[in-house]
Amino acid sequence: MRYLILLVVLVLTGSGAYIYSNLPSTSAVVAGELAPDFTLEDTEGNKISLSALRGKVVMVNFWATWCPPCKEEMPSMARLNKLLANEDFVMLAINTEANGREVVPDFLKKNPHDFTVLYDDKGTVQEQYGVYKFPESFIVRKDGVIDQKIIGAIDWSSAKTIAYFKNLIKG
Predict the structure, then answer these.
(1) pLDDT per residue over 84-137, tens digit each?
(2) Are 149 and 138 in contact (CB under 8 A)?
(3) ∠ at Cα 74 (91, 107), nearest 5°?
C-alpha cells in the first residue's frame, strides 16, 4: 500500500512539474540582468531603440493614461528629467495601451511633459519585460544592465533619488 501511495505521489508530482513547465513564461526582467533591447515609436514618429542609448543612464517607465498612480508620479518625472537634462540621462515613458496613439495625444495636451513618450500599443515590450503592475520602472545603467526595478509611483525628484541618478551617471 505504501508503494502505491508513493507511486501516486510521484506521478502527481511529475505531472504537476510537467504542466508547470509548459505554461507560458511569466518571468519578469530583474535587476542585474541585461535590459532587453526594444525599438518603439515616439509621439513624433521617431524610432527609439534602447541599445542606441548605451552609454547613458536610462529610466524606462511603463504607464497608462487610466492609471492614477502613473499620473501622480509624472510631475516628479518631469522635474527629474529637467534636472538631469544636461547629463548622460534619458527618460522613456512607454505607454502600454492598445489605443495609445488615440488617447495619449489628448492626455499630453492636458498633462504636458518634456520626456520621451513611446507607444507599445501591441504590448510587445510590456510582455518582454514582464510588466503587469502600473507604473513600473526600470533603471538601466550605462552598460545596459538593469540597476533597479521599481513597482509603483514614487517621487522621482526627491533629493535621495536625484543623488542616486547622479551617482549612476558618474559611473
Answers:
(1) 999 999 999 999 999 999 999 999 999 999 999 999 999 999 999 999 999 999
(2) yes
(3) 100
In the structure grid, which three cell numbers stand for residue 4, read together?
A: 502505491
Buried/exposed 113-143: b ≥16 CB within 10 Å, e otherwise: bebbbbbbbeeebbeebebeebbbbbbbbbe
The answer, as to whether pTM is greater than 0.85, is: no
| DSSP H helices in the chain | 2-21, 68-83, 100-110, 124-129, 159-170
User: Could you give all domains of the chain from N- to C-terminal order, each with its CATH number?
Assistant: 26-170 (3.40.30.10)
pLDDT for residue 27? 60
